[in-house]
């Protein structure tokens, strides 16, 4: 697995739209954050474009992202926000130069399309807060992004909730948004999870949708040979008038328990205020005991 070069003061980070629209005035908190770390910022041409929901047409978003991929002066690409739209441009991007000289691609939610696609090239990416979420993100999450970008040691220890499946494992961390992982099944962007630790999170889904997506992952072999499962925020879940009968913990546990792997729930990552940075593709030590969950990047 290739790990992109860590940043140093004076390096430039690009902010672009791959999905929903985002405007220059909204980017100011993110710009100020990056500059406080000693970094320079380049706003892509898609920042400020308005094509219905999207930050520019597909062609405009492809061209903007491609320029940042190929620009040697850009050391990281920070996707402005999620929503929907990245899958519309992924096949129009040329990663030839990127694979030889990788740089950090940063974001979460819809950016899982990029995380997954790039993982198939054996290049690490960064699942973290985005410019859109900077104003409503806890300071600890911002600091974990800084640590990840500058190559500082990352070790997370959080309290156990009491319904985890205890155990320990070591492997590459992969994954992202459950709905996006589900939507990529059968495509060239779908990831291989064998001998890896899978991270999932989601937002605003019905419980039976969660069940359906997980069963489809199971039928596609995502749990075969999996070493561990990190469940992040399962935010604003919904139920039907006739209850499904299980909440998200019950749904996930009922599927995962047959694989004899450690599983934690509500890890601070995803559509939550405490959205800590995860280096997808990096090797982690994952351990769950009676009282704590530890995720340590090697």
From TrEMBL:
Domain of life: Bacteria
GO MF terms held by the record: carboxypeptidase activity; serine-type peptidase activity
Residues covered by the LD-carboxypeptidase C-terminal domain: 170-285
Coiled coil: none
Pfam families documented for this protein: Peptidase_S66, Peptidase_S66C
Keyword terms, alphabetized: Carboxypeptidase, Hydrolase, Protease, Serine protease
Cleavable signal peptide: none
Residue ranges occupied by any LD-carboxypeptidase N-terminal domain in the UniProt entry: 13-127
Family: Belongs to the peptidase S66 family.
Protein name per Swiss-Prot or TrEMBL: LD-carboxypeptidase
């Amino acid at each position: 697995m290739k790990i992109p070069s860590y940043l140093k003061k004076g390096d430039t980070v690009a902010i672009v739209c791959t999905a929903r629209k985002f405007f220059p005035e909204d980017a100011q908190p993110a710009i100020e954050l990056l500059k406080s770390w000693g970094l320079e910022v380049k706003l892509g041409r898609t920042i400020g474009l308005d094509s219905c929901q999207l930050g520019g047409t597909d062609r405009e978003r492809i061209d903007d992202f491609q320029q940042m991929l190929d620009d040697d002066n850009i050391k990281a690409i920070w996707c402005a926000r999620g929503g929907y739209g990245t899958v519309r441009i992924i096949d129009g991007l040329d990663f030839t130069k990127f694979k030889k000289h990788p740089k950090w691609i940063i974001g979460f939610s819809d950016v899982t399309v990029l995380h997954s696609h790039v993982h198939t090239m054996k290049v690490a990416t960064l699942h973290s807060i985005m410019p859109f979420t900077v104003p409503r993100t806890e300071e600890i999450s911002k600091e974990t992004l800084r640590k990840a970008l500058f190559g500082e040691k990352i070790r997370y220890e959080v309290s156990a909730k009491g319904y985890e499946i205890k155990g320990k494992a070591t492997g590459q961390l992969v994954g992202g948004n459950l709905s996006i992982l589900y939507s990529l099944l059968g495509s060239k962007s779908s990831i291989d999870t064998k001998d890896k630790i899978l991270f999932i999170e989601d937002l605003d889904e019905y419980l039976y949708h969660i069940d359906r997506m997980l069963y489809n992952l199971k039928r596609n072999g995502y749990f075969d040979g999996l070493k561990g499962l990190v469940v992040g925020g399962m935010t604003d879940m919904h139920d039907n008038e006739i209850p499904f009968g299980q909440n998200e913990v019950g749904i996930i546990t009922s599927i995962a328990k047959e694989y004899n792997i450690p599983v934690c729930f509500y890890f601070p990552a995803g559509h939550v205020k405490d959205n800590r940075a995860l280096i997808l593709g990096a090797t982690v030590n994952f351990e769950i005991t009676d009282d704590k969950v530890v995720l340590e990047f090697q």
